[in-house]
């Protein structure tokens, strides 16, 4: 798994086009203020170590939220951080597990529409910790 995390003033997205036939038809247009954002790329090799990947992702996200003093995060599936790609089924399972565990820990968690390309706008803060890459 690869994660690119941002400390943002806001993150806005709108569903643009459906990329997976089996997901439900949705149209979402959301703006989340004063949030962290994690672009998450689930890799093929994560299948064998799914539980470990979820646990480490949650630990890294908690660490990051603590560092940028946030209680809110957006999880965005972003399959462009590695040439190794998991199946869509594994990606949604991992991201959903991360979301559930983060919510169980008291964080406000938003997700973008899985199986869609989205148009988005992001306002990233300037500090060095406002942009962090993690490889799990």
UniProtKB/TrEMBL annotation:
GO terms for molecular function: ATP binding; threonine-tRNA ligase activity; zinc ion binding. It comes from the Archaea. GO terms for cellular component: cytoplasm. Residues 1-136 form the Threonyl-tRNA synthetase editing domain. Pfam families: tRNA-Thr_ED. InterPro entries: DTD-like_sf, Threonyl-tRNA_syn_edit_dom_arc. This is Threonyl-tRNA synthetase editing domain-containing protein. It comes from Methanococcoides seepicolus.
